[in-house]
Amino acid sequence: MLLICAATWVEAAACWHASRSRASRVEVLWTGMGLARARRALETRLAAGVRPALVISAGFAGSHASDARVGDWILATEARQAGFEAIACRTGLARALKRTSLRWRKGPVLTLERIAGRERRIFEGVAHDLETHALSRVASRFGIGFSALRMVSDTWDFPLPTRAREGVGFALRAWRYPAELRDGWREILGQTGSQTTE
Asked: What's the whole-model pTM score?
């Protein structure tokens, strides 16, 4: 079973709608935004429920790569956070991604304590979010494989508007992103198999 973790209800709903026909092998966990909420939500779920074969950090991410475009997908090779050891991520989802129409790449994902501003060019990695490293630490502690697959919602040339920084969920509802996230995951899950957990 795959456990897909999403921070906001908008992201979680998109993932849930994408996985409805695969309810027996996919579960979606709404964690809440940020390191602390994500950590607590996943700890609680793993301690109380059936252990998944793979935990996946899903949803949106920013990207500071020079050629990144909104709607690109980032498959993490490792999860990074300042002051912590990098954690390697499983990349078996690459097999499914190769069979989709999505534009994607692999690379490190950096977890921040707050939404990035214009200073993000100094960051290492190809994308940044607010939860992945915390989720990866919890999965590692429970001995469960971990992947991160995020869709780019903002770039250096196309930043989130100010209102999104005040309430990401509100802003994204007004954009096309939730539908793209849902459709992308539907396509990906349609291509997943036993090798996804590798």
From this structure: 0.88
